[in-house]
Structures are given as structure tokens and as C-alpha cells.
Amino acid sequence: MHVTSPAFKENSARALANPGLQKALGTAKGAFLQRRAAAVANLPEFERLRDIGRDIKNHTLANLDFYLEAFEQKVLAAGGKVHWCSSADDARAVVLKICKAAGAKTVTKGKSMISEELGINHHLEAHGIQPVETDLGEYILQLRGEAPSHIIAPAFHLNREDWEADFRRLHTDLPADRVFHERRDILAEARTRLRDRFLAADVGITGANFLIAETGSSVIVTNEGNGDLTQTLPRVHIALASIEKVVPTLEDATSLLRLLARSATGQDFSVYTTFSTAARREADLDGPEEYHVVLVDSGRSNMIGTEFQEMLRCIRCAACMNHCPVYGAVGGHAYGWVYPGPMGSVLTPSLVGIDKTGMLPNASTFCGRCEAVCPVKIPLPKMMRHWREREFERHLTPAAARSNLALWAWFAKRPGLYRLATRAATGVLGLLGRGKGAFTSLPLAGGWTAGRDLPVPEGGTFMAQYAKTRRRR
């Protein structure tokens, strides 16, 4: 997929100047925060559960090869097939091969971020196979030709009037007096149009929130029935999953499920939580004839044993981006690839390369809210700092930033001179800004004042005030 992460600043400027996007962000993000807070408050053991979730994922990652092989054995024993794919190209080739073997003309898809990462839709279309997104948000984005802007609410950036306008523009057979008062009205219209696609599809593709080594099952979590229809009506079901989605047991999966919905949407459990184990058996009334699991590495095994391994604990709840002030201001498309927000600022450089994504780990205030709400306690700010270090080591940061940092380091290594320089700078700025409160422009500080005011220093430096307090005590 085309990566526009290097243009993060330009993307963000457009996002900030887009009134429709700003309205959508302001409307949607508050609801996520309130619902999550209420759900957490109603579960006294939530913090203990976060520790359990962290430990489950840490144990699994430490023994990832064992649990992946155990999962494969269970799938094979139940009559399914597992496909190991080291790269995105391998995964696309496997999916296409399965679809061609099934003679598929139409493929229905449940919501899946890994399929976005792999560019499955474009690949199938290029080979004459029509993929149909069946999640309501993904459906409208497919009609608009847009990528998701959020990992659980793909059309997060749209307002209700956008949805209605697009339905009328793209469905020209709608009666003029047909009015969409609520989201459920649009959902009903989409359901009517998708019903024939569900029945016609030869292959259904879903993601997987979890893979269970104990049983060989894949788990999907949705709030619409499209996921179940996608994996039970077609003759062939393909479950796409990255390798870190495996967990050891059913009990581990249910522990993580208790964290997932509460962190994502503020629900105790999502409306549909579906476990699939292989293909239809003789006594089953429905289900696919073939069950394929496509396991995707695509750079993730390179994260094992590094300072970025903890990122693989992520269960894709989006709590970090829902609470992030940067994401809340610019939305998901500004990040330029599949995974936005704080989790994307760590994961995207790991998968795409820091040379293309250096802007992302720098797009953080380090307020720490992302780590505070993460259900599996991923230290996202720490890992963004590691990426900043990698960027600096490879001389990818701007020359001005490097030279200014070197100048600061020179002073910082000479404490007496550093204190003298900071006292002088504080005094001069205090005199220049007397009565102003803040500078709106300042020589050598244009990069700061172009986007925000610079407060006028008040009082002495931190070290001077610290010394004064100690003397007083």
C-alpha cells in the first residue's frame, strides 16, 4: 500500500483545516472515552485483569514458535489448512490461489486490518475477483474509495450527513423521499443491498482477534452480524491473522476478551463473539466446506527479542488512539498508513521502516495517556523514544535539529556554564516579554511559534528554584 507517513506534517495541516473532519472527531472521540471509563468503573478487578492480559501475551511471545505449531496441529487435525507467509507478497499469493481454486468471482470480507495491511482488495480486483466489504463502515469506505481512519471504527472521520450523501450519490436508485434519520436506517439499507452478495460469494475472508492453540479456533469480535455471515455462508472461509494473535488456551482468550470490548467500545462484551474451528462437519447445519488460516509474519518476527517486542502484545482495542490528543486533533489518515495513533507510531516503523515513518514517533506529546489506558500495559511512549533514538542514530532527523541538540548537549555536559546560560536566557526573555504573557513570534524559535505561543518565563530557572527550596527547608 502507498505510505504517506513522510508527509505527516502536510497531512495534519489539511486535517486541521477540514471542518467536516474536525466535527466528526469532536463528536466521536468523547463517546469512546465516556463509555470506556464507565465500563472500567463497573469492573473492580479491571487493573488486575490488565496484569493478567499482559502476562498472557508476554508468555505467548516468549514461546511463540511452540504455540503457533500447536495451533497448526489442532487446525490440521480438524480438517483445516494453515498457510505460513513470511511476507505480504506470500500472503496475497496464497489468498489469490485459494480464491482461484474455489472459482470465486465474488469474495465477501469481514472487517480486517491485516487485510488492509496486505492490500488484499486491490490484489483480488487486479485478478478479476470482486471483494465486497460487509462491515458498515468498511462498506461505505469501499464505495468512497477511501482507507479506514481508525482500527475499530473505520469511518471515524465521517459525519452522518456524509454517509447519507454518499449513499445517494453511489446508489442512484434510491427514492427521492428516502430519508436516513439514524445510523440504523443506513445499516438497514446496506444490509438489504449486501444480502445477495453474501449468498453469491464463494469465499469469505475475515480477520482474527485471537487464535487459540488449545483448540485450533479463530475468534472474531464484531457488533454486526456480517462477520458470521462472511465465514459461514460461502463454501470457503479464509481467516487472515498475524502471528502474534495466537494465545495458549480458551481461558486465556476469554480473559483477553474481557479486556477488549471494555477498552474498545465500553461494552462488557461485543454483540457477536464468534469462535470458528475448521470446516463444517457432517452433523453441522451450516458452515464452510474449507477452512484456511493464513498466518502472516511480514516483519513481526524481527521485533521478537528487541525493545519493540512489547508492541506485539497489542489486542487492537484502539484505546490508545481514542485517548491521544494528537490523533484527536488530526485523525487517522494523517498518519499515512494502516495503523494510526500511538500504536501505529510504534508498529508502522517496525513494519515499514523508520526511514519512511520518522515523523510518527515524533508526533507525540508524551502525555502518557496511551500507556495508562492500554489494556495490556504496552509502554508506548518508551518505544516511541526508542524509535526517535534510532532515527537520530541513522542521521534521519533534520540537520537543524541535530545541530541544535548537539549545542544543547555541549552546554548540558558543563553544569556551571549550563546554569549560567539558562539564567541569562530566562532573564532576557522575561524582560522582552514583560506584560505580554506569551510570545507569538521570536527569532530562532519560529518552528515553535508558527504553531503555538511561547509562554514568557516567570521566576528563576528550575535549578535556581530547587536550590532556593532546599535552603529554605
From TrEMBL:
SUPFAM superfamilies linked: alpha-helical ferredoxin (SSF46548), NagB/RpiA/CoA transferase-like (SSF100950)
Domain of life: Bacteria
PROSITE patterns assigned to the protein according to its UniProt record, in alphabetical order: 4FE4S_FER_1, 4FE4S_FER_2
Domain 4Fe-4S ferredoxin-type, residue spans: 304-335
InterPro entries associated with the record: 4Fe4S_Fe-S-bd (IPR017896), 4Fe4S_Fe_S_CS (IPR017900), FTHF_cligase-like_sf (IPR024185), Helical_ferredxn (IPR009051), LUD_dom (IPR003741), LutB/LldF (IPR004452), LutB_C (IPR024569), NagB/RpiA_transferase-like (IPR037171)
Record keywords: 4Fe-4S, Electron transport, Iron, Iron-sulfur, Metal-binding, Repeat, Transport
NCBIfam families: LutB/LldF family L-lactate oxidation iron-sulfur protein
PANTHER family membership: LACTATE UTILIZATION PROTEIN B
Name this polypeptide is given: LutB/LldF family L-lactate oxidation iron-sulfur protein
